[in-house]
C-alpha cells in the first residue's frame, strides 16, 4: 500500500496546475496517476495469483468442498479492494487540497469512477495472467508490459482506440464541460471487460455452476460491447463536450482585465502588468480597454484583433506568459513570415538571414512590451538596433511602435527602422 500511495500520489500532485484550484484538473491528475499505479497493481495481482503454485497448494483447492473458484475469487477481491482503497486515499487527499484552495466548480464524479474502474481492470488482468501462467517472472513482466502499452497508447491521442485504454492522461481545463457520455462508456467498458474475463475464467475451472457463469458472462460481454462501441463512436470520442459559459472576474478600473474565476488569485498581478502594458501601447494598434483570458489551445481561433490573452496556470512567470501571449497573438495570424522563413529561391541563405534578423528585431520590441530580457542577439545589426531602441524614452518608443506597427505585426522589421529619432 505505501508504494501504491507513493506512486499514485506523486503523479497526481505533480500534475496539479500550480496556483489553480480547478476540479477538472484535480480529477485529470488522478487519472494520470493510474499510469504509474496501474502497472504496480497489475504486477501485485499477478504475484498474488502465482502464490498457490509457488507454495504447491493446488491440492487444497481440489479437496475443498467449496466451489473451485471461491479461493481465487477471494484473492482477486482482496487485490481489487487494495487498489481501490489506495485510489480512494489519494483521491481524498487531492480533493481536500483543491477544496482548501477554494476550488471552482465541483469534481466530476463519473470521471472519478472511471479512474477507479481502470485501476480495477489492471488488477483483474494481472491476476488472471498470473493464474494462467504461474511463473515467477510473470509479475514484473505484466507490470512492465502494461506500462509500455499505456504509454504507447497515450502517444496516439487521435486514434479510435485511445479512450479504450485503462489510462487517460488528457489534460482538462476549467473553460469546458466534460463529456459524461464518454465516461459512462469507459466505465461500462472497464467493468464489463473485467467481469467478462473473471466469469469466463471461473466457468473454465469446473462444470459446477457453469451454466449460470456463462449466462452472467454473456451479460457482461454485452455491457462490454456497449461501452466499447460508445467510446469508439465519433460522437463521444472527445474528453470535452462543449465550452462552459464563463462568468469572468474583472477589475473595476480601466483597463479591464478579466479572468476565469479559478484564476482569480492572480488577477491583481495581471491587472498591474496589463496596466503597464496599456501605458506602452496607448495610441498604437495594440491599445486595449478590456482583455479577457482564454485557454492557450484555443487562442489561435480568435482573430488577431481580439483582445485576449492566455495563461493556464499561476506558476512562476505566469504574468510574463500572459503579456507575451497577448502581444504574440497580434502577430501570429497576420503573416506567414512570423511562423517560418519564406522560400529563398536561388538565394536561400540570404533570405533565411534576413528573416532571422526580422524575428530578432521583433523580439527586441516584444521584450520591451512584456518587460523581459531580450536574450542573446547573435546578429550585430540586431544588437546595434537594440542598443538604439534602448536609448529612447517610453514616449518615443510608443511613437515608434505606432509608426512601425504594420512592419512589426508582419515580422518585416529591418535595421533601417531603428535609426534616427522619433518625433
From TrEMBL:
<feature type="transmembrane region" description="Helical">
    <location>
        <begin position="213"/>
        <end position="233"/>
    </location>
</feature>
<keyword id="KW-0812">Transmembrane</keyword>
<keyword id="KW-0472">Membrane</keyword>
<protein>
    <submittedName>
        <fullName>Uncharacterized protein</fullName>
    </submittedName>
</protein>
<feature type="transmembrane region" description="Helical">
    <location>
        <begin position="108"/>
        <end position="129"/>
    </location>
</feature>
<feature type="transmembrane region" description="Helical">
    <location>
        <begin position="187"/>
        <end position="206"/>
    </location>
</feature>
<keyword id="KW-1133">Transmembrane helix</keyword>
<feature type="transmembrane region" description="Helical">
    <location>
        <begin position="136"/>
        <end position="155"/>
    </location>
</feature>
<feature type="transmembrane region" description="Helical">
    <location>
        <begin position="31"/>
        <end position="49"/>
    </location>
</feature>
<feature type="transmembrane region" description="Helical">
    <location>
        <begin position="70"/>
        <end position="96"/>
    </location>
</feature>
